[in-house]
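Why predict the complex rather than its parts? Because the way molecules touch one another can change local conformation, and only a joint prediction can capture that. The input here totals 676 residues.
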Amino acid sequence: MNNTRVLLKRRTGGIPQEQDFELVDAATDRPAAGELLCETLYLSLDPYLRGRISGRHISGAINVGDLMGGEAVNRVIESKSDRFRQGDIIAAHSGWQSHPVVRADAARQVNPELGPLSTLLGILGMPGLTAYAGMTRLAGLKADDTVVVSAASGPVGSMVGQIARRKGCRIVGIAGSAEKCRWTVEQAGFDRGINYKTETLRDSLKRACPDGIDVYFDNVGGDTLQACMEQLAFGARVILCGLIAQYNTNEMPPGPNPAFIIKARATVRGLVVYDHEDLRPEFEQQVSRWLKQGEICYREDCVEGLEHAPALFCRLMRGENFGKAIVNVQGTDFKSVP
Amino acid sequence: MNNTRVLLKRRTGGIPQEQDFELVDAATDRPAAGELLCETLYLSLDPYLRGRISGRHISGAINVGDLMGGEAVNRVIESKSDRFRQGDIIAAHSGWQSHPVVRADAARQVNPELGPLSTLLGILGMPGLTAYAGMTRLAGLKADDTVVVSAASGPVGSMVGQIARRKGCRIVGIAGSAEKCRWTVEQAGFDRGINYKTETLRDSLKRACPDGIDVYFDNVGGDTLQACMEQLAFGARVILCGLIAQYNTNEMPPGPNPAFIIKARATVRGLVVYDHEDLRPEFEQQVSRWLKQGEICYREDCVEGLEHAPALFCRLMRGENFGKAIVNVQGTDFKSVP
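Output of the joint prediction:
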């Protein structure tokens, strides 16, 4: 049984290329005491990885020759820890490999009853918790708020909108294709989708938010953030969560003029999901219930086999994915508990 | 009895010049029913007026030919309202004129027992209330916070620091001359004054705030804001209050990259004093007591006679004033109740 791994082969500026990654096969490591040998079922690809490749992300750099990082849902094949048994399903930051050895104290038991296993990396995982923490803890959401979210068809954005919708808010999503916009409105129940690639963002925002933006949940930064800051309503709340627009650059481009914050008496807050781990039990219970009742929907962009991870990651960084980027590592359907 | 008035003569870009203003004499208006004829005792000059000249301030534009605006402490000479009597001291936005006629419902009775009359425009007036609202309502101030404030020797900045000092915080002031820095430390009790004109701001901030900045109260924007955002501590609070650095430009220059807010999990809020009028009674009582007990100090940059208002305003906009810019309009000492 080999362990297939994907390493960072070179570090370039700009949008990553498939050639930046290298697939290697090696013998599977043996687990030592306190460790678990696992098979990776689903691997999550997330935009923050681009920041790790640049060495700029708070969770640490990925250097040339390193295993690509990322969270995965794994099944324990062999346990050298009394905390887990063979067959257990765990989540761990075990990276882009098929058969990782994971320290038991770095693994998190997951409940496969919560929903399909792949959703433990999306709507029921880190992106879902990000949206949940932002909307329930930081946004000060009120029923008549007009909420705008960027990267609206992604796992964070679609969850932000659906939580706000359940609260009774008006939801405007910003996304990069007609298909994504259609999905946010027809499937996820947004009131309006704005295609920033074909529409004039400022004009469309004005029409969609005639009384201004009460809550803006920002996943992208750049000009989208600028345009939203210009149209904040009095007392607006802005949650800064992601900066996709600048992940592929080596600069730190400037941001919006502070006058927009003063004029709107806005409150702008930075959100990093790691700070909100305490919310996870409540979040899992709540979102799992919504999911089982068919009250929220999600979208996945899934490939089968680790060899396709680089291509999907590159698509993700070009904004060409549609939904949560997931690698089904074993190529088998684990939607139900195996 | 003539009414001497100062009008805006021309609108130029950049820092205002004395020639932009015109002194004119006219007969004093007669008060109609509900109005008060006053003599202006002290006139406040404030940086926000520059924004009104540009037509960009929320309190409305001052156009060429208009009376220059601004708040003043006035004495009622003749009252056509039952709300005020001759001899009453009022505050009103009556502008740069010696004998205004003011609508009684736009005048605010002031208590001349609170402190010297000129301070009702400074430490006991709008700038003081600005600092008080920011520090007591928005800053979430804790005793071990490191607080940084720009324009530190001005009426807002010096009050921000002194309120924080009373709470037990470490205070670092940023100002534009050695004399101003010395005053903030020796008189106002700041722990450190940074002269941004002669020191390397980022290095000095690092030395003064080795654990980062917990609270930054920003009166200036521009590069000072940028430098402070780069050094925020985890959970920092930033209060955006003034943008002196951009008042003299016609552009909206960009601001700091949002990544600094995310990294620090900072909360950034816009402060406009008009929203906090409800705090005024508490504020006046508190600050008056501190003032009488000699626990806080203030500094005024005072000229005598309206004809000197343009020069003082231009100095203010060049950052060459030192303390609250005040015009003693009648040229007599009204520090005690006349």
